[in-house]
Amino acid sequence: MSTRRDFLMKAGAGAVAVHFAGVAAALTGSVSANAQSNGPITMVVGFPAGGGPDLVARALAEAGQRELNQTIIVQNKTGAGGRIALDWLGNQASDGSAFGLTPAAMLASFPHVYRKLSYDPNDFVPVCKICDYHVSVVTRSDSPFSTLKEFVAWAKESKRGTFGVPSRGSGTDFIGTLLSKAEGLALEPILYRGGPQLTQAVLAGEVDLAINLSSNFVELAKAGKVKVLAVSTATRSPFSPGVPTLAELGYPELIFEESIGIVAKKGTQEKTTHRMQEAVRKAMGDASVLNALQILEYRPDFKPAKQYGEDLAMASERYKMFVQKTNFQPLD
């Protein structure tokens, strides 16, 4: 018997993967009679100034505007986990005057984890992919375990354990839940308002594990304040080659890399999105852009619109699998 959740998956979220796969095959959604804007370009980012996506956007804007010979203004419209920015972009003209730089989750995950969105993911077309980032599983430096195997043994013996995440229904949340399920544990997920709050919590010993983007722990790991137990990459990360992957520790289903890319409103002319795509391609060779990615431990992985659309479709299917395996109930 089909449930409302099944219906949402088939009729709503499932359509997202079909949409992006279709866009990848032929960018028919980008054909429009709208004239290209020659004025300043707004690059909207759904996260605060100084955060990872913002730093990437500003580095790309500086290098990209030299290629376009147009000013690119980075505008932060924060809140609701990045949803407000896409809501804003969806209400702009499809004339190339506005683009969005966003993690894939806003388009690939949110249709699966929210009952209703303020925007329609099908109202956007991929422009290009910029980079990938991964998740780290960390504990405080003075915790009684130094490996994930030791943590699992400790949790089984003590019949307790917690993991902190910055948001429900995120890749970090699914990793913690599936790890707990794989080992027959009853780990308690603790939700924090964001990355900084989660970082402070693990340092204070409020949670046994913190699961979040690796960029949140780079300096803390270097300073010896946290121990990185595992990373979510398919193979060992070049940023931390001494840290094992979740896959090699026996959890291949926990391979997880999220992408950041640029999207435009559906209806934007293909020549306009292609022009931005090529400007970003060239900007990706700029030292300032590569340095920003290096500092954040983001792996450069430029892909043009077609391949980026295919990646988004695959990401949507991966999140759908996470939702099904964890019996996740969509959020309001």
From TrEMBL:
State the organism named in the record: Achromobacter pestifer
In terms of PROSITE patterns, this protein maps to: TAT (PS51318)
Q: Answer yes or no on keyword Lipoprotein.
A: no
- SUPFAM superfamilies hit by this protein: Periplasmic binding protein-like II
Where does the secretion signal sit in this chain? 1-35
Q: Does the keyword Signal apply?
A: yes
Domain of life where this protein originates: Bacteria
Keywords assigned by UniProt?
Answer: Signal
Entry protein name: Tripartite tricarboxylate transporter substrate binding protein
**What Pfam families does the record tag this protein with?**
TctC (PF03401)
Family per similarity comment: Belongs to the UPF0065 (bug) family.
